[in-house]
């Protein structure tokens, strides 16, 4: 992974100093609450329902074991002994004291971490595929490009006060695990016919209260122009994006208002001035950054299919875990393992300080000292030798990190919701738990198969409900917490947005509602058809009829 | 008399900033004036004929393209921040410096506070009329927030990747 040099380190240390002084001035009354607010947000600090919440940046999801241990220490010393993996691959602490935040940032800086631009109306953490660099279907490793974008976006002087937040995602594989089409900018690394590297550029995708799938405005942007082109897009947005209404301020509204074609023309016109300018990327820089992402010292190994099959036969639990939580690796004899942070009874994405320390230890022993966070709120050991999978599984079981549910209904994406977040209309964690409890039969869960169930506590859509195969949205109905259900969303390639099933439901009705939806799928599916396929074939009506039948 | 930050120092202000609805009536001939864009649009000829110094100010929704042909007439271009969270004029300042080659003073006016000065200077502002209820000497500290920067901007056309040793 990328390692800071003196320049990178200076920048985050300067930030700690700056924020320490800002906090001091706020506490001394020299900065008003209103003036401090955008400053603290650009440092990931929210004032929440019970305490501040600090969101720590994990650039494109990569963490070293040393960083994990530091996060564990912070969870112990400044929080209530746990942390939360967010849907932007970041890490959140729910209980720090405002006065302690400068010290926490100073601690983070010792392991090359920070909270820069994890909130606020600026360019946020760039996200990517959690299997970057190891996926079999990868064409181009997106990580060097993510790092180049991270440096470009960090304290970009022109774009610190955009109309609204701004999210960029990069994909370099056949499958789009980074959900690029629902980002403000989505970049897909591609090669043209001549074998040159470039990017397909999508703009104006996003969730929130106006969910839109992005439009591709450039089919091949040569790599060296990446930053000048991003500058051009951001400049058009900064100048012309709406600022009169917070809910119409995302770039998607501007792209829609102008039409993608006209927006693309504006960007081209701006870019014409910037293209080939001093911000044009050099081969030397791309090489410098890429050197941090070359393969670790893999051994020459063979795939262990027969040995693993024998273990499967002996240990059904291992077989189940392997079928859900282990994926193929580009190197023979290796595998990528997902540690599920979705056991029933734990808020999705939460992890304790002890588990963090243990995962660091496992990373050191099994995985070259590195892990990744996924936007599905799990943790991945990406480089495990297949011959060690069985011992790893046993260790993970003791840690409660081997629940074999990755990609299944109970592996939900879920925002912190009304239990923590002051924006939420409704709680989301108890809904997740009540559904997990209803679907506690592993055989049934496996039979249901691949299913993304996403829960957001409000229309800001942190839980990505629009792109869940089943999406649940907390709404306020005359002061009571209700839940709206949508079906058919998808965050993958050819992304789609869910369709609303009908009137919302009370909290205690939700397990029944989900059960009925699943029953319709199980009855109507043809062989090997996944939930999303069945939904696309039969449409909303059969689900609607079943779910609302009881009310007639 | 208001004091402003200019070229990293606190100095006495000698220019008069005219309100948005200012008219030609009773305009001083000799004072240094920063006039609103609307007045410049209407009365450019008369304003150029004055003996005093001339500057213009743009509100956050006014585009610098409107004055791109006229830059030689202005000793000061002031860009207004109705709220410090309105970032449009960061782009305007860069365009003035980097695209239109404007060399004279670019001044931030309005809700101008210490914690934004470093970024503003990077974009090409060299004068800051810090909000009247704040101490400009305190605000000066904001110009020292960072010792290293990643991007190309008006203060340095070379991004860090061209400067890394």
From TrEMBL, chain A:
Residues of the Nitrite/sulphite reductase 4Fe-4S domain: 119-273, 413-547
Domain of life: Bacteria
Name of this chain's protein: Sulfite reductase
Residue ranges occupied by any Nitrite/Sulfite reductase ferredoxin-like domain in the UniProt entry: 53-109, 346-398
Species of provenance: Pseudomonas mangrovi
Cofactor needs: [4Fe-4S] cluster; siroheme
Pfam families: NIR_SIR, NIR_SIR_ferr
Region forming the signal peptide: none
GO cellular component labels: sulfite reductase complex (NADPH)
Any GO MF annotation of the entry: sulfite reductase (ferredoxin) activity
Entry-linked SUPFAM superfamilies: Nitrite and sulphite reductase 4Fe-4S domain-like, Nitrite/Sulfite reductase N-terminal domain-like
GO terms under biological process: sulfate assimilation
Automatic annotation (TrEMBL), chain B:
Pfam families xref list: DUF934
Highest taxon in the source lineage: Bacteria
Descriptive protein name: Oxidoreductase
């Amino acid at each position: 992974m990328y390692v800071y040099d003196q320049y990178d380190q200076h920048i985050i240390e300067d930030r700690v100093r700056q924020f320490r002084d800002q906090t001091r001035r706020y506490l001394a009354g020299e900065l008003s609450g209103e003036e401090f607010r955008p400053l603290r947000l650009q440092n990931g600090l929210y004032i929440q329902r019970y305490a501040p919440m600090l969101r720590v940046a994990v650039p494109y999801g990569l963490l070293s074991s040393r960083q994990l241990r530091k996060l564990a220490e912070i969870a112990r010393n400044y929080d209530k002994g746990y942390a939360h993996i967010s849907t932007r691959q970041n890490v959140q602490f729910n209980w720090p004291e405002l006065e302690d935040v400068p010290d926490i940032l100073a601690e983070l800086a010792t392991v090359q971490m920070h909270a820069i631009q994890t909130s606020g109306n600026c360019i946020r953490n760039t996200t990517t595929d959690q299997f970057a660099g190891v996926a079999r279907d990868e064409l181009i490793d997106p990580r060097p490009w993510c790092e180049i974008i991270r440096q470009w976006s960090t304290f970009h002087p022109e774009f610190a006060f955009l109309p609204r937040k701004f999210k960029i995602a990069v994909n370099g594989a056949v499958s789009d695990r980074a959900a690029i089409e629902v980002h403000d900018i989505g970049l897909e690394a591609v090669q043209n016919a001549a074998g040159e590297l470039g990017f397909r550029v999508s703009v104006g995708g996003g969730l929130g209260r106006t969910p839109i799938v992005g439009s591709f405005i450039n089919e091949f942007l040569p790599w060296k122009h990446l930053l000048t082109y991003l500058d051009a897009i951001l400049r058009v947005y900064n100048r012309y994006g709406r600022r009169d209404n917070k809910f119409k301020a995302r770039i998607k509204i501007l792209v829609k208002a102008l039409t993608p074609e006209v927006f693309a023309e504006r960007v081209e016109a701006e870019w014409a001035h910037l293209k080939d300018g001093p911000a044009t990327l050099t081969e030397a820089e791309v090489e410098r950054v890429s050197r941090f992402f070359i393969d670790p010292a893999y051994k020459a190994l063979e795939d262990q299919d027969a040995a693993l099959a024998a273990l499967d036969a002996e240990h059904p639990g291992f077989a189940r875990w392997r079928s859900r939580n282990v994926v193929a690796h580009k190197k023979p004899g290796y595998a990528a393992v997902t540690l599920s942070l979705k056991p029933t009874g734990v808020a999705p994405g939460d992890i304790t300080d002890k588990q963090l320390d243990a995962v660091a230890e496992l990373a050191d022993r099994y995985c070259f000292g590195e892990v990744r966070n996924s936007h599905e709120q799990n943790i991945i050991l990406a480089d495990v030798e297949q011959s060690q999978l069985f011992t790893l599984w046993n260790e993970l079981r003791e840690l409660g990190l081997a629940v074999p549910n990755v990609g299944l209904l109970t592996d939900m994406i879920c925002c912190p919701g009304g239990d923590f977040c002051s924006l939420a209309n409704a709680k989301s964690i108890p809904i997740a738990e009540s559904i997990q409890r209803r679907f506690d039969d592993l055989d049934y869960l496996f039979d249901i198969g691949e299913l993304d169930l996403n829960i957001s506590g409000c229309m800001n859509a942190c839980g990505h409900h629009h792109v869940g195969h089943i999406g649940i949205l907390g709404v306020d109905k005359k002061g009571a917490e209700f839940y709206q259900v949508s079906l058919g969303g998808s965050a993958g390639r050819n992304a789609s947005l869910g369709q609303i099933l009908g009137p919302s439901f009370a909290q205690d009705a939700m397990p029944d509602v989900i059960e009925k939806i699943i029953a319709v799928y199980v009855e109507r599916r043809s062989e090997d058809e996944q939930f999303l396929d069945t939904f696309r074939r039969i449409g909303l009506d059969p689900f609607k009829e079943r779910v609302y039948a009881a009310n007639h | 008399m208001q004091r402003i930050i200019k070229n990293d120092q606190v100095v006495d202000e000698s220019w008069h900033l005219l309100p948005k609805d200012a008219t030609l009536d009773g305009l001083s001939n000799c004072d240094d004036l920063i006039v609103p864009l609307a007045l410049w649009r209407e009365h450019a000829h008369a304003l150029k004929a004055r003996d005093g110094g001339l500057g213009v100010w743009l509100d956050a929704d006014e585009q610098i393209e409107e004055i791109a042909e006229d830059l030689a007439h202005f000793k000061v271009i002031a860009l207004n921040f109705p709220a410090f969270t309105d970032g449009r004029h960061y782009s305007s300042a860069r365009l003035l410096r980097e695209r239109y080659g404007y060399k004279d003073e670019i001044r931030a006016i309005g809700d101008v506070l210490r914690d934004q000065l470093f970024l503003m200077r990077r974009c090409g502002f060299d004068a800051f009329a810090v909000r009247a209820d704040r101490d400009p000497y305190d605000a000066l500290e904001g110009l020292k927030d960072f010792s290293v920067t990643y991007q190309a901007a008006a203060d340095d056309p070379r991004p860090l990747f061209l400067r890394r040793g």
